[in-house]
Model the fold of this input.
Amino acid sequence: MREKKIEIALAIAGGGCKALYALGVGFKLRKWGISIVEISGVSAGSAIGMMILSKREEEGIEYFEEILRRNNRNFRPWELLLGKRPWPHENMYKRTLRYSIDYEKIQKTKVKFFVQAIKAFPRKNKIQNYWNKLRLIPRTMRAVILDDKDLENGINPTRVQKIIEEWNLTEVLYTNKDFLNHELIEQIIMNSSSIPPVISFQKINEEYYLDGGLTNNLLLEPFSTGLKKIGIYYENTTILTKPKNIFKNTYLIKPEKGLPITTFDYTNSVGAREAFELGKKDAENKKDEIYKFLRQKWEK
Done:
């Protein structure tokens, strides 16, 4: 008797280059014939999810490797003298998206897709925009770093939450209905990936946006209740503040060893490939365990 096709929801955490690990895991899940009927992605995780849905994982990693080989610096101070951005990341990221994602397929897909970003504040005059960014960006970056340190030490983090309340930052959940054209899909990914100053403060419809991982880096909440969930993440701090009940019927995957690339290292082509291959390897090592989880009775 033919086995019923297994359907899952796949959540992919953000993490810059670290998300290439998730690309490897997702590639294996798809190749095994597991049907991914819902996907969520935050920051780089949204790009990875769309690469998997486009079935362009190998092409994407090859292209990204090649442009990393051609880049020897993550910061180019001389570009400031020319009035240009000194960080090459945004341009390289967009080029990879355009090569690795089949935007037409994303527009037409029946797979439910969820992308989270953070709405920061409305655009005003140039002086006010500049002043708001000057106040919010450094403070937010420092709060994220210190909150992660607190989590690692078993301390309840409060800094980011205070900023959210003070600035009235709000979560925005994009879904398939928002995927109206190629340009808008790319902008949604960029909104979710906005980490100033490396990836610029994104703006659309007179609003500024920040990285969706600021409040929730592994988006499990929007999935249909009848689906088994697989969540891919890279550090324990991603899940430490989540309520335990959200992990019901969820299989979590994280690297079995340290990743060979850091979040914003756009010079490390070897580390990029190794992160992808490690994701594939960890998935294969856990294959029996994953299938056991997927075949077990649904826990209500």
